[in-house]
Amino acid sequence: MIKRAKGVTISQVAEAAGVARSSVSRAFTRPDMLSPETVERIMKAAEALGYVPNHTARALSTGRHGNVGLIVPDIANPFFPPMIRAAQLEADRSDFCIFLGNTEENPKQEDKLVGRFAGQVEGLVLASSRLSDERIRAHAGKLPLVLINRDLDGIPRVLIDSGSGVHEAVEHLAKLGHRKIVYVSGPSTSWSNKQRRSAVRAAASSLGIEAETVPAVLPSYNSGRNAVGAILATGATAAIAFDDLTAQGVLAGLAEKHVSVPGDFSLIGCDDVLGAVTYPALTSVSNRSMEAGRVAVSLLLDMLQSRAIRDVRYVLETHLVVRNTTAALR
């Protein structure tokens, strides 16, 4: 049995495991570059010796901190926690930690967080960024950056294509006999909002039905609830909301006005994070947030390893999940 000792070095672990020092380093930073058997042998030797990687020393000697940042616009929105968890799991596979930032839908706060993180992380993932194109490009020029749900040429990005699912949603409503629908919009700076609004308009035009937009400003329960008066004033018989959180608020507001769903009005959400827990169960466009978080961190770690920036555009398709808030027009 190998005895534990104080001040164990990477060389001692390498000797005990019968591998090169570089292999020990890779076992803790990029285990995917080694065979599972080699990683297991190194980890067993390190545990027996009591070896713990010194991330501070690594940062001083290599400029690498072993941290990456993930910044989201609203951590309370149920769309983001699955993405955060998947990103953390992917980072942990390569012995990286995630620094998490929450901007409260405020571009100034996002800009501030990016600046604060820059000296502490090796790269950043910006999810649903509310920054201008110019500010994103400025930050991308200073450190490795991957975007989720923001389509900028030259910057690696992961895009959840809700347009395909939204087109299905409009087709579904048209088949049920709805001739006038409403899109309850999200933040004006949101790429997903622009994509979904365009998809509603394009699908409605191709199907010969009328579509209007009612602003909800922020993706929240209260915004959806407060938008109900404007929704009903359009004379529409169905609505597609920017996200499930907004749709949940619309559902509550309709109930307060004694409008039956789906008897008198049909409602569809996006992201499918609350569909199974609302009453009635919400018809919604599917959600790929977990996969987006995993892929974005994987792209970022590849950039850090190769020190090269590739113009990657990774697209995740969506589809409509039909439940109980849509029905044929009576």
What's the topology here?
Layout lengths: L9 H8 L3 H9 L6 H14 L5 H8 L4 E6 L7 H14 L3 E6 L4 H12 L5 E4 L5 H8 L4 E4 L8 E5 H14 L4 E6 L5 H17 L2 E6 L5 H6 L1 H6 L4 E4 L2 H13 L9 E5 L12 E3 L3 H18 L6 E5 L2 E2 L9
Parallel strand pairs: 1-2, 1-3, 3-4, 4-5, 5-11, 6-7, 6-8, 8-9, 9-10
Antiparallel strand pairs: 10-12
Note down, in words, how this protein is organized:
This protein is α/β, with parallel strands linked by helices. 45% of the residues lie in helices and 17% in strands. It has 13 helices and twelve strands. It has helices at residues 10-17, 21-29, 36-49, 55-62, 80-93, 107-118, 133-140, 162-175, 191-207, 221-226, 228-233, 244-256, 289-306, and strands at 67-72, 97-102, 124-127, 145-148, 157-161, 180-185, 210-215, 238-241, 266-270, 283-285, 313-317, 320-321. The strands form two sheets. It has a six-stranded parallel sheet, sandwiched between helices. Helix 7 links the parallel strand 3 and strand 4 (145-148). The protein is elongated. It starts with 9 loop residues before the first helix and ends in a 9-residue tail after the last strand. Mean pLDDT is 91; it is low at 1-5. InterPro entries: Cro/C1-type_HTH (IPR001387), HTH_LacI (IPR000843), LacI/GalR-like_sensor (IPR046335), Lambda_DNA-bd_dom_sf (IPR010982), Peripla_BP_I (IPR028082). Keywords: DNA-binding, Transcription, Transcription regulation. One of its GO terms (molecular function) is DNA binding. Residues 5-52 form the HTH cro/C1-type domain. Residues 8-62 form the HTH lacI-type domain.
